[in-house]
UniProtKB/TrEMBL annotation:
Organism of origin: Streptomyces microflavus (Streptomyces lipmanii)
N-acetyltransferase domain: residues covered: 16-167
One Gene Ontology molecular-function label: acyltransferase activity, transferring groups other than amino-acyl groups
Keyword Repeat among record annotations: no
Pfam families documented for this protein: Acetyltransf_3 (PF13302)
Keywords carried by this UniProt record: Transferase
PANTHER family associated with the record: GNAT FAMILY, PUTATIVE (AFU_ORTHOLOGUE AFUA_3G00765)-RELATED-RELATED, N-ACETYLTRANSFERASE DOMAIN-CONTAINING PROTEIN
Protein name: N-acetyltransferase
Keyword check for Transferase: yes
Length: 167
């Protein structure tokens, strides 16, 4: 366990709620991952993924959280903190939303709440690593005040490292 406070697992914004995973999210979670188009994720795989996320959170105190629209009450994706390519002290912010929910500022709104949650744990810095082709994600990070630090190569894939200090 780290010396940081556990991240708050219930966050609310003007249009969104971020809350802990439920087993009943498995179907939507697998549908979201399947939208990536590289493979089909079964509901069983979604369920296993949720258990893995919950187990990771028990040992790290940070989490990816389902994002739900307040009015519609529907699951539209996830946003939160992961170790990813970084460290528990300076974790990464991550997000992924259903295509039908893109382009309405939801990722920026959810990620802004996660920045607040990260600051509440006592952390001083966050990272994000994004494929260089991913303009929408880079734009979200820019809107949140992240700055480019460096680019690394993973085979032929260019990964942009961005960072933001927390108040
Ligand atoms: C990245 C992602 C979460 C963004 O979600 P979103 O809710 O659409 O994001 P927002 O609406 O908050 O902001 C997107 C910004 O990118 C801009 N944008 C979108 N597509 C763009 C393009 N092709 N070229 C330039 N800008 C683009 C939007 O105009 C918006 O910026 P603006 O507010 O200045 O107009 C979403 O695209 C997604 O889930 N992608 C697949 C998963 C993924 O890539 N996750 C990130 C991995 S690092």
């Amino acid at each position: 366990m780290s010396s940081y406070e556990t991240m708050p697992f219930h966050l609310e914004t003007e249009r969104l709620i971020l809350r802990p995973w439920a087993e009943s999210d498995a179907a939507e979670f697998s549908a979201l991952l399947s939208e990536r188009g590289d493979e089909t994720y079964t509901v069983e795989r979604g369920r296993k993924g949720i258990v893995e996320l919950l187990t990771a959170t028990e040992s790290t105190g940070i989490a990816l959280l389902p994002v739900q629209r307040r009015e519609e009450g529907d699951f539209i994706g996830y946003c939160g903190l992961i170790i990813g390519r970084s460290t528990l002290e300076e974790p990464e912010i991550a997000y992924e939303l259903f295509r039908h929910a893109h382009g309405r500022g939801y990722a920026t709104e959810a990620a802004r709440a996660v920045l607040g949650a990260a600051a509440a744990t006592g952390r001083n810095r966050l990272w994000s690593t994004v494929a260089s082709w991913n303009t929408p994600s880079l734009r979200v990070l820019e809107k949140l005040g992240f700055e480019r630090d460096r680019v690394s190569m993973e085979g032929t894939k260019e990964v942009v490292w961005l960072t933001r200090s927390l108040p």
